[in-house]
Design brief:
The complex is a heterotrimer of chains A (385), B (275) and C (283). Chain A has 385 residues and is α/β, with parallel strands linked by helices. Chain A has 19 helices and twelve strands. Chain A has three domains: 8-50, no CATH class; 63-167 and 294-347, 3-Layer(aba) Sandwich (D-Maltodextrin-Binding Protein, domain 2), CATH 3.40.190; 168-292 and 354-384, Periplasmic binding protein-like II (D-Maltodextrin-Binding Protein, domain 2). In chain A, strand 1 (63-68), helix 5 (75-85) and strand 2 (88-93) form a beta-alpha-beta unit. In chain A, helix 11 (228-241) runs parallel beside helix 19. Classes of the chains: A alpha/beta (385), B mainly alpha (275), C mainly alpha (283).
Chain lengths: 385, 275, 283
């Protein structure tokens, strides 16, 4: 086979090799230019055992490490991604933005892609933990087709750091088999009934934004309040409720499905998934209000497999794939291109797309809640009590 | 009495039976039995992340056990018969290493290494040419180092007990017969303490392989088997975890029984506490 | 002189290891405990006792641990001792090693998975379902201190059985024969001969289990449903969620101090009662 390599000079070979190693050219180009591709093909044909597995044009590596939320992805799409690119997706699940921030602050997380919520992105930029996205590597991201209301938070100082995944709301899910006719409709009722007929059957999130926020809403305060007096009242309510809680966890689906828990603070998609499989579980938006949020894909600084990261995000943003994801996770996606691909039942689903009056009562999370020490300490005190 | 023992064994094995039974679950939820199938064993064995976690656990356990055994033995030999301040300090350090809960050691190591790397890395970046600076981060190194520390304490404790109970006259006799110190060590001391070293090695290996708490904090981007199991539980448990657990159990059982059979055939019976 | 050099050389690697991986990290923790929380989480250098003053905020966690850890140790001892006794004294020597292996092996299955099995057993579809079927009404077992207690006793039982077994097995049976010959009833022989002689094993077992329980966070997290907080859980939360490294360091230092005091007290008691050397008793 050496006569093939003689056709390109040794120097040119080393040049191409270096270019390939630095990632300036694709493997296909390298193999073509040096003739190694043809050589391997001939050799492989002669000895089938030597044939390499399908050479992927991009050569992005063998894995992409993803940090995300519970029940957020259809595994079938990851399998398709692996089949297409040869990179398997390693999934790490977290229940709160604080946990993700803590892991990134400790360094060496090993993540390639993670899913931050809208209010955290400015903090990540300030802490120098994420890098601006190179949109050239994300051809499937069409900024124009995304609703700015939900895509906006991903842009900080004019640079795009994150692209939207889906948006959603925070309400609560109730198993109507146990509500005795009257389904709670407000956060106040949520907390009151936890202490009476739902005692021992309610869950709250292990996540300060939603749990403290829900308690604040029960008094009519802002979801994002960092006012010490208001927080004190919220803490009082939470501590009074604690003995009646079933669990404090952001992974509430298994308990709701098994019937151990009857009511829980809940996100849109989980509410949809639960309702789909168990119609007796309904998703309710507390009338006082709640959280409106938007989740994004972002790449942390120092991601070990940057190519795989971009490939994964690009793959998941492809409208066909995104539609499959949307059908699975049940969260609304702000990409207008999906409207043509999703069935009308989904596009008109009141769980995913709440009525205007309910939607208007919701608030986006505020960055202050992520960094406010009082809220963090309140949550820790509540859990510790 | 027999009945009591049987009851305790039942208590010990009830959860294990549950795990094993559900590992054959055909459904995807680890809590609803929908049919009999061995698919999860296949899935676990062909899951690249499981295999990688297993490999990482194995390498870390092996390296830390070797380091702990070698350095620990050396330290135990050095400390034998020593008195005075050095001995006191050594005793205190070993005492602290064993007594401080794993979670504190894990956290302490995490913050110490993160801070240290935070100081060293920019410095390294200055020294090395563009983009090629080696960056220190948590991973294999921190895992092996942290595990080796605790294991070393175990080895030292085991060996000190062994050395203390050893018959000095044998070594004195060897010296009287003009054997140089190293030969004495190699032909008299070492064989006598070898079971202790082996016990220490095995104990260290087991501790490291099974450790979750310390690994959880210092593993960085690496995944050991216990860490993989933990994140699976957070990710939504499928019977794949049950399959992994059952397999580990069977392998341990086989290893222990084999070891016992071999030891029984050996020259003398060990005190029964090699595990 | 040469001997001293070789001794130092032998001691050096372990010495360096301890200095870098034990002393240094603990020093960091100590220093951090006097610092303050960085605005977005983390640590800023400072010198203040504020973190220590804030310790009562985790009072319940400390209380939980200081109550459930000794309780768990005691229960574990009560269950383990008869089993160890049976294995050492009453079991057929042919089967003894096999039975011992059967005790150790569960310890080698990840405690995570074993605790996960308890979530199922104590959850709605497990034991409570059986209890309800038997007509005793609905009872909630999971996510309670009871569940955590069960989990910790179960998890550390093998660790308690082993040292007691070793101690009992080394017992010179002739002492018991002598006691019987002198007319003592079996119970008296047990109380005055067997029990005292097995104390080193009991001490080792209790010490091992207690130390591990004080640092436990997995079992309370899994079986307590986030509602039963041990000091370990408080630590994990402070470093991996609240990101208050300074306060976390203070809690960690306090935990170490509690351990030092308790274990030293224990060792002193043991020494007064038995007069055994530490390291021999430890193993």
């Amino acid at each position: 086979m050496t006569d093939k390599i003689d056709h390109i000079s040794r120097q040119k070979f080393m040049e191409e090799m270096r270019r390939y190693q630095k990632g300036s050219v694709t493997r296909r180009h390298f193999l073509g230019v040096t003739g190694l591709g043809a050589a391997t093909a001939v050799l492989g044909a002669a000895m089938p055992g030597l044939m390499a597995r399908p050479a992927f044009a991009q050569g992005i590596g063998d894995r992409a490490v993803l940090a995300t939320w519970p029940n957020y992805h259809d595994v079938a799409n990851f399998d398709a991604f692996a089949a297409e690119t040869g990179a398997a997706v390693q999934v790490n699940v977290f229940g709160s933005n604080e946990e993700m921030l803590a892991k990134l602050q400790a360094g060496g997380s090993g993540w390639d892609v993670f899913v931050p919520t809208n209010y955290t992105i400015t903090t990540y930029v300030e802490q120098d933990l994420i890098e601006p996205l190179d949109l050239a590597l994300l051809p499937n991201y069409d900024a124009a087709s995304f609703d700015q209301r939900f895509a906006g938070p991903g842009t900080v100082d004019g640079k795009i750091y994150a692209v939207p995944k889906n948006w959603g709301t925070t309400g609560f899910a109730v198993n109507t088999n146990h509500t005795g006719g009257t389904t709670p409709a407000t956060w106040k009722e949520f907390f009151d009934r936890t202490q009476t007929d739902f005692s021992g059957r309610t869950m709250v999130h292990d996540y300060q934004l939603t749990t403290i926020g829900a308690a604040l809403k029960a008094f009519g305060y802002s979801f994002n309040s960092v006012d010490p007096a208001e927080l004190a009242k919220a803490e009082e309510l939470l501590l009074a409720t604690k003995p009646h809680l079933f669990a404090i966890s952001s992974d509430y689906q298994p308990s709701m499905r098994s019937g151990d828990a009857w009511m829980t603070i809940c996100w849109t998609g989980d509410g949809k998934q639960l309702n789909r499989d168990m119609p007796e579980i309904v998703y309710v938006l507390g009338r006082e209000g709640g959280e409106l949020w938007s989740d994004f894909y972002a790449i942390p600084k120092g991601a070990p497999h940057r190519d795989a990261a971009y490939a994964l995000i690009n793959f998941l943003l492809k409208p066909e794939v995104n539609a499959k994801e949307a059908l699975f996770h049940g969260y609304p996606v702000p990409d207008a291109r999906l409207n043509a691909l999703l069935p009308p039942e989904v596009l008109n689903d009141p769980i995913l797309y709440p009525a205007a009056d309910l939607l208007n009562a919701l608030e986006f999370g505020a960055a202050a809640t992520l960094t406010d020490p009082n809220r963090a300490e309140l949550m820790a005190r509540f859990k510790s009590a | 009495m027999r009945l009591y023992a049987a009851a305790v064994f039942a208590f010990l094995y009830l959860p294990i039976a549950v795990i094993a039974i559900f590992s054959f679950n055909a459904g995807t939820h680890a809590s609803q039995f929908t049919g009999f199938s061995v698919q999860w064993y296949g899935k676990a064995l062909s899951n690249p992340f499981v295999m990688e976690a297993l490999w990482t656990s194995f390498i870390v356990a092996l390296c830390s056990a070797v380091i702990a055994s070698v350095f620990g033995t050396m330290a135990a030999l050095a400390l034998q018969g020593m008195t005075g301040r050095v001995r006191m300090v050594a005793d205190a350090l070993i005492y602290v290493a064993v007594m401080v809960p794993g979670i504190v050691i894990g956290i302490a190591t995490l913050i110490a290494l993160v801070t240290l790397f935070g100081w060293i890395n920019p410095f390294l970046a200055l020294l090395a040419p563009e983009g090629q600076a080696p960056q220190l981060s948590m991973g294999y190194g921190s895992l092996i180092a942290a595990h080796a520390l605790f294991s070393m304490s175990l080895v030292i404790i085991i060996l000190r007990a062994r050395l203390a109970g050893m018959d000095r006259s044998l070594m004195e006799a060897s010296a009287d017969l003009y054997a140089p110190p190293f030969a004495t060590f190699r032909q008299v001391t070492l064989p006598l303490i070898f079971p202790g070293i082996l016990a220490g090695f095995l104990l260290s290996f087991t501790f490291s392989f099974d450790d979750f708490i310390i690994a959880f904090f210092v593993a960085g981007s690496e995944t050991t088997l216990p860490i993989y199991v933990f994140s699976s539980i957070r990710r939504g448990v499928t019977p794949e975890i049950n399959a992994i657990g059952t397999m580990v159990l069977i392998v341990s059982l086989l290893l222990l029984v084999t070891a016992q059979v071999i030891l029984r055939r050996g020259p003398k019976k060990e005190g029964g506490d090699a595990a | 002189m040469q001997r001293r050099l070789s001794t130092w050389l032998l001691l050096a690697p372990a010495g360096v290891w301890f200095a870098v991986m034990l002393v240094l990290p603990l020093c960091f923790v100590l220093v951090f405990s006097f610092g303050e929380r960085a605005p977005a989480g983390g640590y800023v250098p400072a010198f203040t006792f504020a973190q220590y003053a804030n310790l009562p905020a985790r009072g319940t966690a400390f209380l939980n641990t200081l109550m459930l850890a000794p309780l768990g140790t005691l229960l574990s001892l009560l269950i383990a001792y008869p089993l160890a006794y049976f294995l050492a004294m009453r079991s057929d020597p042919k089967w003894r090693t096999l039975l011992l292996i059967l005790v150790i092996v569960p310890f080698w299955t990840s405690i995570l998975i074993r605790s996960y099995a308890w979530i199922f057993i104590l959850g709605g579809q497990g034991l409570p379902a059986v209890i309800e079927w038997l007509g005793f009404g609905q009872v909630r077992l999971i996510n309670t201190p009871f569940a955590v207690l069960t989990g910790i006793v179960y998890g550390y039982l093998p660790l308690m059985v082993l040292p007691i077994f070793v101690s009992l097995e080394r017992l010179d049976k002739r002492l018991l024969e002598a006691s019987a010959d002198l007319g003592a009833p079996p119970l008296r022989s047990f109380l005055q001969v067997t029990l005292p002689l097995s104390l080193p094993g009991v001490a080792t077992g209790c010490m091992l289990v207690f130390i591990l329980l004080m640092g436990e966070f997995l079992i309370p997290a899994m079986l307590g449903g986030g509602k039963v907080f041990f000091i370990g859980n408080a630590l994990v939360d402070l470093f991996l969620q609240s990101r208050n490294w300074a306060f976390g360091a203070a809690v960690a230092v306090t935990l170490v101090v509690i351990m030092l005091v308790t274990v030293s007290l224990y060792m002193w008691l043991m020494r007064r009662m038995g007069g055994q050397r530490d390291d021999v008793a430890m193993m």
